[in-house]
Design goal:
By secondary structure, this protein is mainly beta. The chain contains one helix and four strands; from the N terminus they run E-E-E-E-H.
Length: 76
């Protein structure tokens, strides 16, 4: 559920925890809407760790240290 707090514009796959399974780093936000529609700016970067049986474990910002503010369009 927390991975849906904002739009996702960029995804990187890598084995972030060293278990041999690809994990996900998500980033996004969008602020260029008309004022009456507000902004999608609740994402500071999300890390999802691959678990057993195709389950994902969401890591909090306290665990990851991510603070990707503003709009993110790509991750390299």
């Amino acid at each position: 559920m927390p991975a849906q707090w904002s739009c996702v514009n960029a995804i990187v796959t890598d084995d972030f925890n060293g278990d041999g399974k690809p994990d996900l780093l998500l980033a996004g936000n969008k602020t260029s809407f008309l004022p009456q529609f507000s902004a999608l700016d609740g994402c500071l970067g999300q890390v999802l760790i691959a678990g057993p049986d195709r389950q994902w474990k969401w890591l909090s910002q306290a665990e990851t240290g991510l603070q990707l503010k503003n709009e993110v369009r790509n991750l390299t």
